[in-house]
Automatic annotation (TrEMBL):
UniProt cross-references to InterPro entries, sorted A to Z: LysR_HTH_N, LysR_subst-bd, WH-like_DNA-bd_sf, WH_DNA-bd_sf
Name the record gives this protein: LysR family transcriptional regulator
Keyword Transcription assigned: yes
PANTHER family attached to this UniProt entry: HTH-TYPE TRANSCRIPTIONAL ACTIVATOR BAUR, HTH-TYPE TRANSCRIPTIONAL REGULATOR
Family classification: Belongs to the LysR transcriptional regulatory family.
GO MF term (any one): DNA-binding transcription factor activity
Species, as recorded: Marinomonas arctica
Domain HTH lysR-type: 4-61
Keyword annotations of the record: DNA-binding, Transcription, Transcription regulation
Length: 294
């Protein structure tokens, strides 16, 4: 194989990150045809296909994603070196792109990212997407990190994901403060109305198990997968809800809701998903380490 041309690799890196050749050509002040030719030359020299076209977008091939991991390492470190040589300090700012499930508790997300707010040299963006789009964002290096309450398999040899449990929150029965039931479940709950998460959620499974243990049939008035909607229904409906108290911590503090009792040995688990890569931003490693205390 011919000696690697780092100018061509840099052009590849910029296109891979942006996903748009036209945009990168404009930013680098070169023609699209010249840029395209140099990418083809890089592919020829490396004897691999780095991109495939999908409409107007360029999508990384499997080999392209592997090459991007090395390019990330090379050019991110290069930018740090340039900043150090010019200013005697490391790069002034670091940015994290974080993807979250739309149904995830906003209070959990806020708590997770709160350490970043105390770092003046760090900025971040939060993007809500469906699970498949989140994983695609990781694969294409649009996202540095994904937060979810759905575990995914990462136990195969070639799995691209690194899955880390960053928190677990106890589940509880929550309801209006003035109507609190003081007796242990299911005593006193015979006429209760319920607002519950969807049937395929971890929370609902735990509650169904509790009901089956006591042969209790809940009167379900509404179901919602979205934690923000579940929070509103719990606050305004007068019905009982099953969720992590952290979701309604503000309502509990204001005296609108109260935790009636915890579900025994029942938790909602939260996961951080990253992708295997050569270069991992220092701020991301620190954030994942701090998350163990959530």
């Amino acid at each position: 194989m011919s000696r690697l041309n780092y100018h061509h690799l840099y052009y590849f890196w910029r296109i891979a990150v942006a996903g748009n050749l036209t945009q990168v050509a404009k930013e680098l002040h070169i023609s699209q045809s010249a840029l395209s030719l140099q990418i083809k030359q890089l592919e020829h020299n490396m004897d691999v296909a780095l991109f495939e076209r999908s409409g107007r977008r360029l999508i990384l091939t499997d080999m392209g994603r592997r090459v991007l991991a090395y390019a990330d390492d090379i050019f991110n470190k290069g930018e740090e070196l340039e900043s150090f040589l010019n200013k005697g300090i490391l790069a002034e700012t670091q940015h994290l792109s974080i993807g979250v499930l739309p149904t995830l508790s906003r209070n959990f997300v806020e708590h997770f990212v709160s350490p970043l707010l105390a770092k003046p040299e760090v900025s971040f963006s939060l993007t809500a997407r469906g699970m498949s789009d989140l994983l695609n964002g990781l694969t294409n290096h649009e996202l540095d990190l994904v937060l979810t309450n759905r575990p995914i398999s990462a136990d195969t040899k070639d799995a691209p994901w690194i899955v880390q449990q960053v928190s677990r929150q106890p589940l509880a029965i929550v309801g209006p403060k003035e109507g609190k039931i003081h007796t242990p479940f299911p005593q006193g709950y015979e006429s209760a109305h319920w607002i519950l998460p969807g049937k395929n959620t971890e929370i609902r499974t735990a509650f169904n198990l509790l009901c089956a243990t006591w042969q209790y049939q809940p009167d379900v008035k509404a179901e919602a997968d979205d934690m923000a909607m579940l929070r509103l229904l719990a606050r305004d409906s007068g019905a009982l809800a099953v969720l992590p108290p952290v979701v309604v911590k503000d309502e509990i503090r204001q005296g609108l809701l109260e935790e009636y009792q915890r579900l025994p040995d029942a938790y909602e688990h939260f996961y951080a998903i990253t992708t295997q890569r050569k270069f991992v931003p220092q701020v991301l490693m620190e954030l994942l380490q701090m998350s163990q205390n959530i």
